[in-house]
Specification:
The chain contains one helix and 47 strands. By secondary structure, the protein is mainly beta. Strands 1, 5, 6, 40, 41, 44, 45 and 47 form an eight-stranded antiparallel beta sheet that branches.
């Protein structure tokens, strides 16, 4: 007698923590370049194309050090890149360096790049914090103006008739309520790494001497300044504080945690509902305005096994793009400088692989995988994993409105001086101006039907596939009895659209119209089976897998 078991829910996402017996039926131990639909299916991620054809700043790939992207939402939106010690902007497909009125490049001494704060006054302006001891600037979209550093003899204590053109030099800047805020300041040559200052209300270039709070605790140095909801967050290495209030007499510093924190502004991302931040050595956490929640449980083995190493934290990025959190990490080996365990090639292969470097100490100099958290999937969100076609992560991501009015997720390539945008029509990534096919696959959990001791004959499974392309081929690897090192069988499943199945009011078959079923080959005899399916070079999607099996007779 042939029985069936259907798996139609993949919303558990990636789980590196559970072993084979504790993995949920809707969870995966390994996936790459796939998205999980909130209703249960899985499909290949969007490809990406280059925004700029000319290298940013003429910087070579070996010397490129990107920090973050910023979307300035003005009438003609600008996409701003901070990389190396410069700032670049674009309204279309060419990035120019931001300069002052004397055509001198605006430089930044901030370790993690310049920071930006939008201000909507009589005309939109962007305030730029370039680092302690380096003059802050105002950018009008064409020319940057250096602001006089606030300090002795340069404070504007008169609220009624303030003079303008001033701003403290600082590592961090933010716009909150009716003021500009800065943190980690330099005043008269003296560093105040724990100080937060705010401007006059409605006058962003006027500052009083006594309008500040020194944030004590959590280590020395403020690492990020983030407006959220009706308060502003101050991040330190081992603490997070909130400043509440609406004027200088009511501003109040409230500690949220003195165990967690972050170490740079590039490891904090903000959405409408929450702030996500990477705390070392704890992982990624979400703050929703009332509580801090751990969202890194499924990926914590990356820290416990030493895959995320303290010496490589500069390569970590946390970004909000396409309604998802991108946590880009330097794991495995560098695709640009491949190294073996003992530095030599060994018979039959190599010790290291793309996800694990076995020495546990040396990490890649750039992020090599983006772990993507979608808060809309499942009960508490789900993880997936992205990687570019050449084995890198996607850093500095934001959503950007292009001149044609279309909004796309854009990111920086961490090695090549390029900005890329996602494109749902592509199954390739632009790598150094070349469209390159990337791999995508999903590994299901082990199927033993609740009877791991019983041997079964696994017949041909049926794949419920999405019509995301006119035709495509799924490559299927089959593993037996909890052995994940070598697959036991391998076959391909071909999907070809059939226009005759569409309703009468649709003249021809169109993509994304429903699903179809295709049958694979027999999986063989085993106590448990695991399958990995995917493809490269074509869009594909799977909404479910139906296993067909019968129990083998047992001799008494």
């Amino acid at each position: 007698m042939v029985s069936v078991a259907a798996i139609e829910d993949f919303t558990g996402g990636l789980n590196l923590r559970a072993d084979v017996f504790n993995l949920g039926k809707n969870e995966s131990p390994d996936m790459l370049n796939v998205d999980i639909d909130p209703r249960g299916g899985v499909q290949q991620r969007d490809g990406s194309s280059c925004v700029n054809s000319v290298d940013i700043g003429g910087i070579s790939a070996a010397n490129f050090a990107p920090h973050k992207l910023f979307h300035w939402r003005v009438v003609s939106p600008q996409l701003i890149v901070t990389a190396n010690d410069k700032i670049f902007y674009a309204t279309s497909n060419t990035f120019d360096v931001i300069q002052n009125g004397s055509s001198v490049d605006v430089a930044t001494t901030n370790e993690y790049g310049a920071e930006f704060a939008e201000w909507i006054g009589s005309q939109p302006e962007l305030y730029i914090a370039c680092g302690e001891g380096t003059a802050s600037h105002r950018w009008d979209g064409n020319v940057a103006t250096a602001l006089t550093p606030s300090g002795s003899g340069a404070w504007q204590d008169d609220l009624l008739s303030p003079t303008t053109g001033f701003m403290p030099t600082a590592d961090h800047v933010a716009s909150h309520v009716d003021r500009i805020w800065v943190a980690a300041t330099d005043e008269n040559g003296t560093s105040y790494p724990d100080r937060v200052r705010w401007s006059h209300p409605l006058f962003p270039e006027s500052w009083r001497e006594n309008d500040y709070i020194d944030v004590v605790g959590g280590g020395q140095g403020i690492r990020a300044l983030v407006p959220f909801s009706n308060h502003i967050l101050v991040f330190k290495d081992r603490a997070v504080f909130a400043i509440h209030g609406y004027n200088a007499s009511t501003f109040q510093l409230v500690p949220l945690t003195q165990e967690l924190g972050t170490y740079s502004s590039q490891t904090v991302a903000v959405s409408e509902q929450a702030v996500y931040f990477f705390s070392w050595p704890d992982g990624v956490f979400r703050y929703d305005g009332s509580s801090i929640v751990d969202v890194f449980q499924q990926l914590r083995p990356l820290i416990q096994s030493g895959e995320i190493n303290k010496n490589a934290l500069d390569a970590v990025h946390v970004d909000w793009m396409k309604r998802k959190v991108f946590v880009s990490l330097p794991v495995g080996v560098s695709p640009d400088d491949f190294q073996n365990y003992d530095g030599t090639q060994i018979a039959g292969g190599i010790y290291d692989d793309e996800e694990v470097k076995y020495d546990g100490y040396i990490r890649p100099p750039v992020a090599t995988a983006s772990f993507v958290f979608d808060p809309s999937v499942g009960k508490g969100g789900a993880w997936s994993r992205y990687r570019t076609a050449d084995g890198h992560a996607m850093v500095g991501g934001v959503d950007f409105v292009f001149p044609d009015g279309i909004t796309n997720g854009v990111y920086i390539h961490p090695y090549y001086p390029k900005v890329l945008k996602f494109d749902p029509a592509l199954a390739t990534d632009c790598v150094d101006d070349t469209d390159t096919v990337f791999d995508g696959y999903y590994t299901m959990g082990w199927q033993d039907l609740g009877q791991p001791q019983a041997r079964k004959f696994w017949r041909s499974p049926e794949f419920i596939v999405s019509r995301v392309a006119d035709e495509y081929q799924l490559n299927v690897d089959v593993f037996h009895d909890w052995n994940t090192f070598n697959f036991d069988r391998q076959f391909d499943v071909d999907f070809v659209s059939d226009a005759s199945g569409t309703p009468d009011d649709i003249e021809s078959w169109t993509e994304n119209y429903g699903s179809d079923t295709v049958r694979g080959e027999a999986l063989g005899s085993a106590r448990a089976v695991q399958i990995r399916f995917g493809s490269s070079g074509a869009k594909w999607g799977v909404n479910g897998v139906v296993f067909r099996y019968s129990f083998r007779k047992v001799r008494v």
